[in-house]
Design brief:
single chain; 420 residues; alpha/beta; Rossmann fold; Arc Repressor Mutant, subunit A; 9-stranded mixed sheet; 5-stranded parallel sheet; 18 helices; globular
């Protein structure tokens, strides 16, 4: 099949997609920049191309090529692609290249088209590959936008319902369980099968195949172990034993692949010494709660872990957008604060996630760690995210006296950056 035929089929698919319902995304506040290469990255099926199509639709006509097509990726004549786009789309000034990381030497192709006056929008599902190429080949010529699965606000907007506070809190449970991937929600597809298939596809297509991994069982075991132990600390030595992979270096490499493919991300333990941060255990989180429900090996749901993971996702977005750096903190006595938000040299906020707030022992433990962290880190902005408790209280613990804000998780999720 020649390139023009492939792109003609893709054009028909594009026309069909333009008729589908679109939910406003957080990235809609960022306009595409004329003259720069607009790069949109994020997990597979999170809505990157739909976001790009919507943004370009506001501007006018544009060309389109999707490199998630093996026949198109095999093309060696780059000019044949651009000639076919010019023919099918009447010499467009804007072009959208979908999943461009699949195309060999894509960055050189994009750079050349940019110099020739084309306004490019490109999407990709591999964070590290794109960031490496952007840094080395597109310096000063690109604008970056991150697109994740639906936030809680987008999840509610997609259902177009007027809800009371109680109903909103009830919707949170479904969001915590099934996550924010757009397609199952909008098309009423069974979540677990969809997300299990997507998870496996990312492992095999974006990792095993791309990096020619021979020990497939090891990376499968690693992925299942991690998703079954979300929000837990880990060491590379422990992970090597779990997967029967003797090389710690190989485990580090496999985990980096899982992060690059936007399945997991890790958070470091905070220390004022960078050396200690590097050497300390990390905590692992998943990019969407739906994957946990679909793939984790467990006998009952752990709502507390789902709460913590959903908070980690929102804070990770702030980190990827360059507004904050995210850590966890532990005292020498092993008292732990779930999240430490740092802006520049300043520790801006300490956050505890406490689903079981009615349990006195749990409440005392969480508050004690928060107050101790406040003293040691000299941070007075203290926040506890709860199921439904909301208040501001001055708390005391062995001479440490600070005001703490308590906010229901559902309310915080509607505006996570507020106060940070």
């Amino acid at each position: 099949m020649i390139v023009r035929d492939i792109l003609l089929i893709q054009k028909r698919e594009l026309e069909s997609r333009l008729k589908e319902k679109y939910v406003e995304r957080a990235g809609d506040s960022k306009e595409l920049t004329r003259g720069l290469i607009n790069v949109i990255i994020g997990p597979r099926r999170a809505g990157k191309s739909f976001f790009a199509i919507h943004a370009l639709g506001k501007i006018g006509a544009f060309g389109y090529a999707n490199f998630d097509d093996e026949k198109l990726v095999e093309t060696k004549d780059y000019d044949e692609i651009i000639n076919a786009i010019n023919s099918l789309y009447n010499n467009p000034k804007y072009i959208l290249f979908d999943e461009i990381q699949n195309f060999d030497k894509w960055e050189l192709f994009a750079n050349r088209l940019n110099r020739q006056g084309y306004n490019l929008v490109i999407t990709g599902s591999n964070s590290n590959l794109l960031s490496k190429e952007l840094a080395t080949h597109l310096t000063g010529r690109y604008s970056l936008i991150n697109i994740f699965p639906f936030s809680f606000k987008e999840y509610l907007d997609a259902q177009a319902m007027e809800l009371t506070e109680r109903e909103t809190n009830e919707k949170l449970f479904a969001y915590l369980t099934y996550g924010g991937y757009p397609e199952p929600l909008l098309k009423k597809i069974e979540y677990k099968d969809y997300l299990s298939t997507l998870f496996n596809s990312i492992i095999y297509k974006d990792i095993v195949k791309r990096f020619r991994i021979r020990n497939v069982q090891a990376i499968e075991d690693l992925a299942i172990y991690l998703i079954s132990n979300i929000s837990q600390e880990f060491s590379y030595n422990t992970l090597s034993k779990v997967t029967n992979c003797k090389s710690v270096h190989t485990i580090q490499k496999y985990l980096s692949y899982l992060e690059e493919a936007f399945i997991f991300f890790k958070i470091s333990k905070f220390s004022f010494k960078v050396r200690d941060q590097i050497a300390s255990n990390k905590k692992i989180y998943c990019i969407d709660n739906g994957f946990i429900n679909a793939k984790a090996f467990r006998f009952s749901p752990d709502t507390g872990k789902l709460y913590e993971n959903i908070v980690a996702i929102e804070l990770k977005k702030l980190e990827m957008n360059g507004t904050s750096n995210i850590y966890y903190w532990k005292s020498d006595q092993q008292e732990e604060v779930d999240f430490l938000v740092k802006q520049g040299p300043r520790i801006k906020q300490l956050i505890q996630v406490c689903y079981d707030f009615g349990n006195i022992k749990t409440k005392d433990r969480e508050i004690r760690a928060l107050l101790k962290g406040s003293k040691e880190l000299e941070c007075k902005d203290l926040l506890v995210l709860t199921e439904n408790y909301e208040a501001e209280e001055v708390m005391n613990w062995f001479g440490i006296r600070e005001k703490i804000k308590f906010i229901p998780l559902w309310k915080w999720l509607l505006n996570p950056s507020q106060g940070i």
